[in-house]
Amino acid sequence: MGDDRMNLRILFLATRPWSFIMTIVSSTIGLLFALQTINYDIILFPIVLVGLLAFHAAANMVNDLLDVRYGVDSFSSPTAKYRRHYLLTKEISVSTFLNEILFFYVIVVSITVYLTFIRGWIVPIFTAIGLFFTYAYSGEPFKFKHQPIGELSAFIVWGPLMTTGTYYVLTGNLHLSPMYASIPIGMYVALVLFANNLRDIEYDKAARVKTLAVILGKRRALSFYKYFLLSIYLSLIFLVIFRIYSAYTLIAFLTLPKAYRLVKTFYERVPEAADPLTAHLAFNFGILIILGEIINYLQSSIFY
Questions:
Q1: What pLDDT, on a 0 to 100 scale, did the predictor assign at position 5?
Q2: Could you tell me the sign of the dihedral formed by the alpha carbons of 105, 14, 208, 153, in that order?
Q3: Region of residue 41 (phi > 0: left; psi between -120 and 50: alpha; otherwise: beta)
Q4: With contact defined as beta carbons under 8 Å apart, do 197 and 190 qualify?
């Protein structure tokens, strides 16, 4: 019994569950925009969320599997220094790893089929795009993560794709507002990936991996990190000005001091946990945006 619990724990940790917070943030923003419409089916949200989390888990595991297969991940790689890599340590066999990936894909496809009967053919299009990026991010012949477009693919999936997809399933309609609203969150997820690549510049350079950080070089990559981070906050201001977000979402600026300290840390020495630290900041930013929209929704419900 104890061994079974340990095995389940390892299988769960192999999905990198700490990264799921951004999927929750992206889908919740889609939910909040759906609540601003007249016709929506909130009962579908838990189903969508389970599907997105299963997709995220499969994406993480496919990435780990292919990185080991292509020799990108090894015991000497920076990634292995700050998190346990269960394929490298052989705590999970390749066959078990593949079965777990298959399990998550079965959930994704099953939920897609169910939602297709409810919302129509646009649902499988969203799923197909997501599945494509799941493989193309690490897999041949695309290997987006080895090119300057790795960050762009992360932006597309955790930005417009997840937020707009959630909104569509809940409302049955496509609208530009949730897509615009996804921009800051998608940018933050892209920045998490860039932070990872910034830390790995020397390792990636030796492996002949041409990420955006490698092409820029460390000095310019640090500047890119700083100004891209600033542009996320500026994008929120523009979205408030154009009334995509309510003014309450500006409470996300409470994370700015922490963002400043993080940038300062990066300039002193890029930490081994560069991407988790950036992800934690992104989560705080996203949660405050959600809180701001909830306050706006409650105020609108009470006074109108």
A1: 57
A2: positive
A3: beta
A4: no
Cα–Cα distance list, 151 to 29, 40, 105, 197 (Å): 21, 32, 23, 10
Q: Whole-angstrom Cα distance, residue 196 to residue 272?
A: 9
Q: How high is the pLDDT of residue 2?
A: 47
pLDDT at residue 300, as a whole number:
78
- In this predicted structure, what is the pLDDT of residue 4? 47
* C-alpha 122, offset from chain centre: 22
Cα dihedral 280, 145, 177, 120 sign: negative
Q: In angstroms, rounded to a whole number, what is the distance separating the alpha carbons of residues 298 and 251? A: 16
CA angle 53, 55, 60 (to 5 degrees): 95
pLDDT digits (tens, 9 = 90+) for 163-198: 999 999 999 999 999 999 999 999 999 999 999 999
What does each C-alpha distance from 233 to 8, 187, 295 come to in angstroms?
40, 10, 20
Mean pLDDT computed over 144-153:
90
